[in-house]
């Protein structure tokens, strides 16, 4: 215990904060008609002071002096503290924090928190027809008399409020603000933000550098710090008849339940309970999910087109009917020549993804990515206006406590505020940045090493499967090699992700970012670079390097002079790329969903199991979790990860990259992403509402660095899809053959008769056997036959195809980039009606401020006049 504690609200061994006192509190609350399960966890013992924050520490912790100094300084800052023991663990103590009215006003003014100035009617929203159709949160709006996707207005009664103009709070002009009730003027999330602000800047030692709750959590002085949930999320009574007990219960019923997966998200309620930062994440996730619907539909149509034309494909027909064409052996020791017709199924499956719709779908997805980002800017502008976040970042960006502590001895005047603040010297910043960049390159080289190991495995596996005794495996050696390679690659990806997170966290802290947003952006960029390279490096190898440097029979290129480099199948390498993307995307989404929900469920189940086995404070077993106060129930939940929403955004951004970068090879990627995101929205909602402690309600004006990363992915997607169509797929070779070498090139583009024979070269195997009898085999390339004047040299058709590929890349990129730029120009970032409303509101605010000040002066003058009249003899 802290020495010399004379606060009557503090917990001591002789105080009333025992199980008997808790039972008396429940009895008193029952007499008052309150719900004990809610009220006992939301107020101090007097039932009046609302709990704004919870600190948790162990009684056995040796760091008593730091904790006592910290709590003493918290009281000096104006906070009120009260302690309670845990009913589930005798070694746990809770510190409840309440912020009085005067303290709230003081810090609300310091933090420039905007508060209601004067109530007005709801601001009208005039949206364009196209934007009205696109504006959705979990699915597109269906214009029906009764929209099944829309939430019923009566289901969210708390959101039906009059709108207000707001202004930065000022104690000197408190009479300007609409204060009907001091208890509800500052919302629960605002009160929690104020307490968090104080906790971050309160010292716990006499030294100047020792401050902040984050450091106390890091050195185990406190076990946890979190705002409490507003009660339970379940009720014995239906919400339709008895209403919602609290906002958490309302969120569970109208957002987190799986049965309403097709409904809109209540973004205003999410923002009110979890803060604007989390609200923007779910708004963006819902917008992205809704925009995936047209992409998924077009992708399905392209896939169905390939399915319906699979049997009529001329290339597939020629491969299936090529019973007399002998292909060269896949290895040089134990492999034998094989028939081209043996790969009939492989050729048909390839046509599903490599057909005439591939080019159209690649162009469509590049334009789709631009439309998605441009309309998201408009949606974000609407949200930031409705949530009163305009110009918030410039007003409220704060220094990180760790930055203040590190560079407190070096100060300079802030050019914006004019106040002195800690400053990081340029030499120190550059040296730390160089170390961080070196760490990034080292980790990327580690990824490339892992990819190289997978390539070596594929070479060994290819040779083994091609000479396998089992005929089924030998016949389908391509699938066997690609399948085993991608499974091993997936395990390496998931293993390295664990290492990347720790390295990114270490390098980001080493840089000492100035603000929390800079720290998060730096950490997010590192995590994206690490995981993007880790996830896509093997995909880039298959797309652009597989089969490009294999050589030819008799002169194969070998790795370490031992293993032959891989060759593409006669029908192309696109099916290998498709298999790589499909397997990784499918299994990664399953793994992520398990780690997001299944793992917390298992942890919370284990906590409840230990709770039932252990004794309470009074030595009684706690059998029913609902009997616990709210702070005990929240303590037994899982904390939100230390990186905030980085992991949530990272998962979706990587999925966006997978959906757009190689979409030409896998048109079903948008469909898989859509199905995953429909689950992801409710899974995240369920996790936030039921499985996690309530996070600190932070504010944000946009999705941060992720928007720039999405734009970069959109540009990269155009380039990679151009190269995939031109190099990986067989679209260009078929195009050149149909117009230049086909038997009916003057009459029809689709005439591809004889294409397979034209794309296969001839090799004389007698050279390898040292035999006088010629025995020919075929291989995929454009080379002269052995009986020509220049055997095995590239033919004219090879150069025509190469020129056509380069021309296609140039034309495709310029065309798509031109369309993207034109669309971005046509769609303004902010709707015109929103700009007009903002100007109108600024004008009205100035008028109302003037009128309110004039009215206040008249009242003061009248009051002073009456006082003067009464005092006159």
Automatic annotation (TrEMBL):
Keyword Protease in annotation: no
Keywords noted in UniProt: Cell membrane, Glycoprotein, Membrane, Transmembrane, Transmembrane helix
One GO CC term on file: plasma membrane
Pfam families hit by this protein: Anoct_dimer, Anoctamin
Keyword field contains S-adenosyl-L-methionine: no
Subcellular location: Cell membrane; Membrane
Any one GO molecular-function label of the UniProt entry: chloride channel activity
Membrane-traversing stretches: 127-144, 281-308, 358-376, 433-457, 477-500, 528-551, 653-675, 703-727, 802-827
Domain Anoctamin dimerisation: 43-267
Membrane-topology annotation of the record: Multi-pass membrane protein
Residue span(s) of domain Anoctamin transmembrane: 270-841
Family: Belongs to the anoctamin family.
The protein's name: Anoctamin
């Amino acid at each position: 215990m802290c020495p010399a504690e004379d606060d009557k609200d503090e917990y001591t061994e002789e105080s009333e904060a025992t199980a008997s006192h808790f039972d008396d509190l429940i009895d008193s609350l029952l007499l008052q008609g309150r719900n004990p399960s809610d009220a006992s966890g939301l107020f101090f013992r007097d039932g009046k002071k609302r709990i704004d924050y919870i600190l948790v520490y162990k009684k056995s912790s040796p760091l008593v002096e730091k904790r006592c100094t910290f709590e003493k300084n918290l009281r000096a800052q104006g906070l009120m503290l009260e302690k309670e023991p845990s009913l589930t663990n005798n070694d746990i103590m809770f510190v409840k924090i309440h912020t009085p009215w005067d303290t709230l006003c003081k810090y609300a003014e310091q933090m420039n928190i905007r508060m209601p100035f004067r109530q007005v009617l709801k601001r009208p929203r005039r949206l364009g027809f196209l934007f009205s159709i696109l504006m959705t949160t979990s699915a597109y709006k269906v214009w029906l008399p009764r929209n099944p996707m829309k939430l019923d207005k009566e289901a969210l009664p708390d959101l039906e409020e009059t709108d207000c103009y707001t202004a930065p709070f000022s104690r000197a002009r408190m009479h300007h603000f609409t204060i009907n009730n001091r208890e509800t003027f500052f919302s629960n999330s605002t009160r929690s933000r104020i307490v968090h602000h104080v906790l971050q800047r309160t010292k716990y030692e006499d030294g100047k550098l020792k401050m902040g709750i984050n450091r106390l959590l890091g050195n185990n002085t406190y076990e946890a710090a979190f705002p409490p949930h507003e009660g339970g999320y379940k009720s014995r009574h239906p919400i339709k008849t008895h209403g919602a007990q609290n906002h958490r219960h309302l969120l569970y019923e109208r957002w987190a339940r799986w049965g309403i997966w097709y409904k809109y998200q209540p973004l205003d309620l999410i923002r009110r309970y979890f803060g604007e930062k989390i609200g923007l994440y779910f708004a963006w996730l819902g917008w992205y999910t809704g925009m995936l619907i047209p992409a998924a539909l077009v992708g399905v149509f392209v896939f169905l087109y390939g399915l319906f034309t699979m049997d009529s494909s001329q290339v597939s027909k020629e491969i299936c009917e090529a019973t007399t064409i002998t292909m060269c052996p896949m290895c040089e020791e134990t492999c034998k020549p094989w028939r081209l017709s043996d790969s009939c199924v492989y050729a048909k499956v390839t046509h599903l993804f490599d057909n005439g719709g591939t080019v159209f779908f690649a162009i469509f997805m590049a334009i789709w990515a631009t439309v998605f980002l441009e309309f998201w800017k408009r949606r974000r502008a609407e949200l930031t206006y409705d949530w009163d976040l305009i110009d918030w970042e410039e007003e409220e960006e704060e220094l990180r406590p760790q930055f203040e502590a590190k560079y407190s001895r070096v100060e300079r005047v802030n050019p914006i505020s004019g106040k002195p603040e800690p400053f990081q010297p340029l030499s120190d910043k550059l040296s730390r940045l160089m170390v961080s960049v070196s760490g990034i390159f080292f980790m990327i080289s580690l990824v490339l090493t892992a990819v190289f190991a997978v390539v070596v495995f594929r070479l060994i596996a290819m040779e083994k499967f091609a000479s396998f005794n089992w005929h089924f495996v030998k016949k389908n050696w391509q699938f066997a090699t690609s399948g085993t390679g991608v499974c091993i690659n997936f395990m390496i990806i998931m293993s390295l992700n664990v290492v990347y997170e720790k390295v990114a966290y270490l390098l980001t802290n080493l840089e000492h970012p100035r603000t929390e947003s800079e720290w998060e952006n730096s950490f997010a960029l590192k995590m994206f670079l690490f995981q993007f390279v880790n996830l896509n490096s093997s995909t880039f190898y298959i797309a652009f390097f597989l089969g490009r440097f294999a050589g030819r029979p008799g002169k194969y290129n070998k790795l370490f002079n031992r293993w032959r480099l891989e060759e593409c199948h006669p029908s192309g390498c696109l099916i290998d790329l498709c298999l790589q993307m499909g397997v990784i995307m499918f299994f990664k989404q399953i793994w992520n969903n398990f780690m997001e929900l299944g793992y917390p469920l298992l942890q919370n189940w284990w906590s409840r199991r230990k709770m039932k086995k252990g004794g309470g404070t009074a030595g009684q077993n706690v059998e029913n979790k609902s009997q616990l106060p709210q702070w005990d129930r929240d303590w037994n939940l899982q904390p939100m990860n230390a990186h905030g929403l980085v992991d949530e955004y990272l998962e979706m951004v990587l999925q966006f990259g997978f959906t757009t970068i190689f979409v030409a090879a896998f048109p079903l990627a948008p469909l898989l992403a859509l199905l995953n995101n429909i689950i992801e929205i409710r899974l995240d909602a369920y996790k936030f509402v039921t499985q996690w402690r309530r996070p600190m309600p932070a504010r944000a004006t946009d999705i941060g660095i992720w928007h720039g990363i999405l734009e970069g992915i959109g540009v990269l997607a155009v380039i990679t899809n151009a190269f995939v169509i031109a190099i990986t797929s067989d679209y260009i070779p078929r195009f050149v053959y149909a117009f230049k070498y086909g038997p009916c090139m003057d009459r029809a583009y689709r005439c591809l008769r004889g294409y397979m024979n034209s794309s296969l070269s001839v090799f004389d195997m007698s050279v390898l056997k040292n035999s006088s009898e010629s025995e020919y085999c075929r291989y995929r390339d454009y080379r002269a036959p052995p009986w020509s004047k220049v055997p095995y040299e590239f033919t004219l058709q090879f150069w025509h195809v190469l020129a056509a590929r380069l021309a296609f890349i140039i034309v495709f990129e310029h065309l798509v980039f031109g369309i993207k730029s034109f669309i971005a120009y046509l769609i303004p970032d902010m709707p015109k009606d929103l700009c007009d409303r903002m100007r109108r509101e600024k004008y009205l605010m100035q008028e109302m401020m003037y009128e309110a000040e004039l009215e206040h002066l008249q009242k003061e003058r009248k009051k002073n006049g009456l006082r003067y009249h009464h005092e006159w003899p």
